[in-house]
Amino acid sequence: MTDLVIRTLSASDAHLFDALPDPLGAREAHRRTRFRPDWKRVALRDGEVVARGAWWGGPDDPEPVNINWFDVAEGEEKAGAELLRSAPRQVELEINLPGGWRDDPALHAAAETRFTAARAAGYELLVERFLYRWTPDRGLPDRPGRLNFRPEPDDTVFFDALRRIHSVTLDAHALKAVEEGGLDQAAQEELDFFHWCPSPRDWWRTAHTPDGDLAGIHIPAHNPSGPTIGFIGVVPEHRGHGYAYDLLVECTRHLVEQGAEYVSAATDCGNTPMAACFAKAGFPVVRERVNFHPATATTAEL
């Protein structure tokens, strides 16, 4: 087998990224995503592209947030692993998949090829997630009317609510943050993400029971690709009443009132209560995502 060549692309050779088949439909999934040419890398053997990866971040981010497009030709798992292993920035890897991929032999095989390459590069499975997309033809869910929603300008109120919410959580990213740095880190990571989103701070809402108790929070947001459910969370002492659905409905309606023509969302596959809320509110699963995180880090440069 001939030697492998790993290349970081530029505007002049960005077309090489498109020289690999797309069995998992990543191109359609990323049609709203803007990638920087110099954050794309390819692995070539005999001049043919056998693996590719696109690192992604917001338009003002100096460093990528994650890898959210990764493809490997059949039988080239080692090339895919080297593409990831030799990369400058070791960040989370997202592998986006069509819904029902496990039941289609060709899609399942393509996914497993990518998983094998990721594990060989030192990445570990973090979580599998459902990706949702609400559109107007699904109809706007009615407000249950059980909670009162208020704007809250003080970030410390949200920070305290997030600490309480993440003290008992099914969210894999929050659990990882708690393990690494405690509840403060988990809450701060959420706040940092909300501020990173290019949507107004005054969209954030606290939710209260008729008695005035804080029941939870919801964050309608725009990420760089469009309107999304940024966060839904109920404080532990008010769980068991189905309030997550009330928060989701209010968050969705807020985005639509701000002009959203669709609303994206995601939740961990293991978070069955939240998945049930999305189904009830008319959010169909449109794709799935498998998140890997690097077991080790490197400071090499692209």
Automatic annotation (TrEMBL):
Q: Where are the transmembrane segments?
A: none
Could you tell me which Pfam families the record lists for this protein? Answer: Acetyltransf_1
Q: Name the CDD domains for this protein.
A: NAT_SF (cd04301)
Taxonomically, which superkingdom? Bacteria
Q: Which Gene3D superfamilies match?
A: 3.40.630.30
N-acetyltransferase domain residues are 163-302
Q: What is this protein called?
A: GNAT family N-acetyltransferase
The upper taxonomy is:
Bacteria, Bacillati, Actinomycetota, Actinomycetes, Kitasatosporales
